[in-house]
Write a structure and sequence with these properties.
This protein is of the alpha/beta class and about 475 residues long. It has two domains: about 220 residues, 3-Layer(aba) Sandwich (Aldehyde Dehydrogenase, Chain A, domain 1); about 190 residues, Aldehyde Dehydrogenase, Chain A, domain 2. The protein contains 15 helices and 20 strands. The strands form five sheets. The chain has a seven-stranded parallel β-sheet, with helices on both faces. β18 and β19 form a beta hairpin. α6 packs parallel to α7. The longest helix has 23 residues. It is globular and about 70 Å long. The chain starts with a helix and ends in a 6-residue tail after the last strand. The relative contact order is 0.14. About 5% of the residues have low confidence. It binds nicotinamide-adenine-dinucleotide (NAD). The site of nicotinamide-adenine-dinucleotide has 26 residues, from α8 and α9. Its EC number is 1.2.1.76. Keywords: NAD, Oxidoreductase. Pfam families: Aldedh.
């Protein structure tokens, strides 16, 4: 006679054998790869059609498969960060290598399937559940400032919630974006048998973007970029999740820890040569601590420029608007360049390791109103905290993106927080702290600002579906 232990063992073995059989049969289906080069398509319609098939595959796949895809994207970004970071810098020619690499390594902080949830209510009439379902194919537009990191973060968020994705990358970051898509799809196919979970247009243009915006099989748009693409997406007839431009102001008041403020501004404003949309772009300092703050910036390792050097840099970095009310024109050749390169335009010779340039300007200097994406931050005097908040509000331009304060006065923090109404409001730390990097929270490279979804996560890309069982299934 079999002992109880033997009986349990043989039942477990049978179940395991059955599971193994099932897995071998279904988890890697023997399908041939579709057209295209692992998700890279010259033709926009083909890229959309393939993403649609990718979505069909995902609908049949398990939550475990989605989790595998998330892990694959994180692993590739982490393990291949040096090679991919170098490729990104070679192609885009903006930013700093160490930060290009780091931005790929931190992709592991982007939330995945663990964020998916189901809501439930039970009552006299039974049970109601709300499931968070995918939309289908999401059309994504990615910026040159973080081409592959944005794409990778979007794949993690969108696939975790069951969507597939078609990408129109920035033309100056298309090669690295396509290479990422190839590597992701190859590994995803090997692990799950799923294909074209993410597809990409290899020669992106405004027309290919427009085709994605208009195509009926693309259900939602997620655009990450400046004012032009933000406007275009919001003018389309689709639901658009818009991660738009910013011009983050910083207020330093008389109660601030000035050394911490200086270190933070250098860490955030100098990151990847100030390419981050959340990066510190202009600083307003209360007059009574202005000189002390400038000395703290010297101590913390930023390079100070005098007014004639700032004039020379400003002339190299901007050309004046045709009409007084228009924008200054940014010299794109200087965007994302090292502080040492900018300094040369002002006749200064600095080591390549210099993280940031700074100097006193008035508020009319174009570095204040324009989102310059260069490692020079203008420092402007203000009479007091209230005046500083007025200036911050004025030069954030109502983007409602990011603002920062260095203060120990809770009342001033609250006043500024209410007045700015920005998606991120960071106190006493560098801007990346607002994305879970040294502060609490989680990471995404797409911060939806005008459309209000905030720091995007898997739940951002879901639609609610309610399922009701009348008068039953309630167990208490
Ligand atoms: P960009 O606006 O020049 O380009 C962004 C993307 O939009 C590119 O793929 C580009 O080809 C496309 N595009 C531009 N105009 C378009 C139009 N009319 N129709 C369709 N597509 C269009 O920006 P960039 O220089 O690549 O990136 C920097 C900008 O992006 C900054 O303004 C920055 O603040 C913003 N950004 C925002 C976030 C965020 O999360 N909110 C993140 C990164 C960057």
């Amino acid at each position: 006679m079999q002992s109880t232990e033997d009986t349990i063992r043989s039942v477990v073995q049978e179940v395991l054998a059955e599971l193994q059989k099932k897995n071998n049969g279904t988890s890697v289906p023997k399908r041939e790869r579709q057209d295209g080069d692992w998700g890279v398509f010259a033709d926009t319609d083909q890229a959309i059609a393939a993403a649609n098939e990718g979505f069909a595959g995902l609908r049949e796949a398990s939550m475990e498969d989605r989790a595998k895809i998330v892990e694959i994207v994180k692993r590739i970004c982490f393990e291949q960060s040096e090679e991919l970071g170098k490729l990104e810098l070679q192609e885009t020619k903006v930013g700093r290598l160490e930060h290009k690499i780091e931005k790929l390594q931190i992709i592991k902080k982007v939330p995945g399937t663990e964020w998916m949830k189901t809501d439930a209510m039970s009552g006299d009439h039974g049970l109601m559940i709300v499931e968070y379902a995918p939309f289908g194919v999401i059309g994504a537009i990615t910026p040159v400032t973080h081409s592959l990191p944005t794409l990778a973060g979007n794949v993690i968020n969108m696939v975790a919630s069951g969507n597939s994705m078609v990408v129109n990358p920035h033309p100056s970051g298309k090669k690295i974006a396509c290479e990422g898509v190839r590597r992701f799809n190859r590994a995803i196919y090997a692990a799950t048998g799923l294909q074209n979970v993410v597809t990409i247009v290899s020669e992106p243009t405004l027309e290919s973007a427009e085709r994605i915006f208009q195509h009926r099989d693309v259900k939602v748009l997620c655009v990450t970029g400046g004012p032009g693409v933000a406007r275009a997406a919001m003018a389309s007839r689709k639901k658009a999740i818009v991660a738009g431009p910013g011009n983050p102001p910083v207020l330093v008041d008389e109660t601030a820890d000035l050394d911490n403020a200086a270190r933070s501004i250098i860490a955030g404003g100098g990151y990847d040569n100030n390419l981050l949309c959340i990066g510190e772009k202009e600083v307003f300092v209360v007059e009574s601590v202005f000189n002390e703050f400038m000395a703290a910036m010297d101590r913390a390792g930023a390079a100070r420029m005098n007014s004639s050097q700032i004039d020379q840099l400003t002339k190299a970095a901007f050309s004046p608007p045709e009409n007084k009310d228009d924008h200054w024109h940014l010299n794109r050749d200087l965007v994302g360049q090292h502080a040492s390169v900018l300094a040369k335009h002002a006749g200064m010779s600095l080591p390549e390791s210099t993280p940031l340039l700074f100097g006193e300007t008035d508020e009319q200097n174009p570095f204040v109103p324009e989102e310059q994406m260069m490692p020079f931050v203008p420092i402007v005097r203000c009479r007091n905290a209230d005046h500083g908040i007025d200036l911050c509000e004025k030069y954030e331009h109502g983007f409602r993106h990011t603002s920062l304060i260095h203060s120990r006065n809770v009342r001033t923090m609250s006043t500024m927080g209410r007045r700015m109404d920005t998606t991120l409001f960071i106190k006493n730390g560098p801007s990346p702290a607002g994305l879970g990097l040294g502060g609490e929270g989680y990471l995404s490279f797409s911060i939806a600002t005008p459309t209000g979804e905030g720091v995007t996560n898997p739940m951002t890309f879901t639609r609610q579906r309610r399922c009701v069982m009348v008068d039953d299934l309630r167990i208490v």
